[in-house]
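User: Can you predict the 3D structure for this chain?
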Amino acid sequence: MRLVFAGTPVTALPSLDAIAASAHELVGVVTRPASPQGRSARLVPSPVASWAHEHGVEVLAPEHPKDRDFRERLAVLAPDCCPVVAYGALLPQRTLDIPAHGWVNLHFSLLPAYRGAAPVQRAIMDGVRETGATTFQIVRELDAGPVYGSITESVARLDTAGELLDRLAVRGAQLLVETLDRIAEGAEAAPQPSDGLSYAAKLELDDVRIDWTRPSQELADLVRGANPEPGAWTMFHGERFRVLLAEPCDERVATGVIEARRREVLVGTGSAALRLLTVQPVGKKPMAGADWGRGARLSGGEAFE
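Assistant: Here is the predicted structure, written as structure tokens:
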């Protein structure tokens, strides 16, 4: 089949590599426009655009996929199908109708659970022990289209959202190619199950502020789900302090109070204490919690806000 791939971040690159190595013909990519980066606000193309430039593949980067010029160029490219991985914009019906076999999305959850922008982050924050990825036909309703296939993936005790997403991106790439192969052979998608529907809204900073009155396991899951972005945080001496990895322990410490020991830092929660494994004070690089505790020269009794 002739394919035009739609995606934007690094997460989409394993699928691009897999499609390029498949029997299908990649004739173009659709991605979000270049965005300002750093203090200079220099415009930088998306990872998908950079990949396409390096491989001599045409890049379409409309401000919005409803733009007429974009739709006309897509029609000229005449894709049979448009695979999608983390494109980042809603597709209007006129654009969805262009390829004969539609737009097929690789979504990083077991649909209908965790429809939306942050399925991996929200799943970890909810403490799930198994998630996965699903390929489905895109329709106007959010992540509600019929399903072609899925894979499952276990969530390890200390998995961060970044680590889990990396694994799903690689395994999901093969699922996406297998789905495209099946579509070329005439396969049809099946309706999504009606049970287990949930939504995974984009994480905002307020969503990941640490409330030390919550149980330690919930906070450990919050920290892992917010890593690497936007990063769970608390306040310390009037500045934002990020906690990147933590685990519950059996000891008790007063809520929010920091107990720095030679080999570990514990913080009190609404249940047992939380052991800080990796932290990032403002203006610093990530470091082991114990290293921060030794360097901070805590006098005892300090607490996170």
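The chain has two domains: 2-184, 205-296. Residues 2-184 form a domain with the Rossmann fold fold (CATH 3.40.50.170).
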